[in-house]
Amino acid sequence: MSAATALLGDSPQRDYARKLRLFNAFAAPELRAALADIGLKPGMRVLEAGCGCGETLGWLAATVGAEGLAVGCDLSAAHALAARGQAAGAAVLQADLLRMPLRAASFDAVVSINTVNHLRDPLAGVRQLKTLLCGGGRLVLGQSSFLPDMYFAWDARLERLTNEAVRRYYRERYELDERQLTAVRALLGLLQRAGLQQPSVRSLLIERIAPLKPADEAYLLEAIFRGSWGERLRSYLSAADFAALRRLCDPGDEAYALRRPDFHFLQSFTLAVGRVAP
């Protein structure tokens, strides 16, 4: 997507490869299980729109095999470069999702995970992806966190205030309103409005409890506690609440959340699938 169509500041120069790698390592069991059910077979042609650093693209390439074709596309030049090294057997393009240099009706399946929420006009993106599908092809949209994530099972109040602070930060940082941040939840409606047939939706939970595996702690600590929260939330919380949050997010503090024996994390992940006419 171009700067004009990006909702969250994306550009060819933007690089959040570390966060993407952390999430894919963290959620790999659930993501792989979900993608295994979308009906890909050896010999098929599949595109991942918004392929990030290529972990998911590598799984898709392995599924369609050498007799098939796997292509990835990402706006970020850094992500496309990383994906070329990660996704063996796949071709990778650095391009705008709305202007990909690909022929219409070229793919049996198009997969796009945590991507259409970065567009100012998600419906335009879905319609563009639909044009790339051949007769009977499937469009698979994945999205994390339709439901509020649970981080502090023992403190719903601080969790709620933290989530509200994050939303306020994004609204002010990118000059958005609440509707722009929540409209992406309507994946089913996007598929219907784009004219895709037989739309279906399935959600699953990514669930972790103490003791955490290293990949789980790395994602939650680096991508969430430090990357999504951290100092930038100070002005959106009271001094007491920010101090409490800092203690829970500090590995050197005895209150550190990720080493509590009662730590229990929940995050939803949703796949919406639609077909084009045969």
Brief account:
This protein has 278 residues and is an alpha/beta fold. The chain has nine helices and seven strands, in the order αβαβαββαβαααβααβ.
Task: Please tell me about this protein's structure.
Helix content is 38%, strand content 21%. The chain is α/β, with parallel strands linked by helices and 278 residues long. It has a single domain (17-275), classed as Vaccinia Virus protein VP39 (Rossmann fold). Helix 1 packs parallel to helix 2 (55-64) and helix 1 (17-36) crosses helix 8. It has nine helices and seven strands. The model has no long low-confidence stretch (mean pLDDT 95).
Question: What are the main properties of this structure?
Answer:
alpha/beta, seven-stranded mixed β-sheet, 38% helix, single chain, globular, 278 residues, Rossmann fold, 7 strands
Topology:
Elements: H1 17-36, E1 45-49, H2 55-64, E2 69-74, H3 77-86, E3 91-94, E4 107-113, H4 122-131, E5 133-144, H5 156-173, H6 178-182, H7 187-193, E6 197-209, H8 214-229, H9 239-248, E7 264-275
Parallel strand pairs: 1-2, 1-4, 2-3, 4-5
Antiparallel strand pairs: 5-7, 6-7
Helix pairs in contact: 1-2, 1-8
Strands of the largest sheet, in order across it? 3-2-1-4-5-7-6
Average the pLDDT over all residues and give the rounded result. Answer: 95
Query: So, the CATH homologous superfamily?
Result: Vaccinia Virus protein VP39
Largest sheet: 7 strands, mixed
CATH architecture: 3-Layer(aba) Sandwich
The name of the CATH topology is Rossmann fold
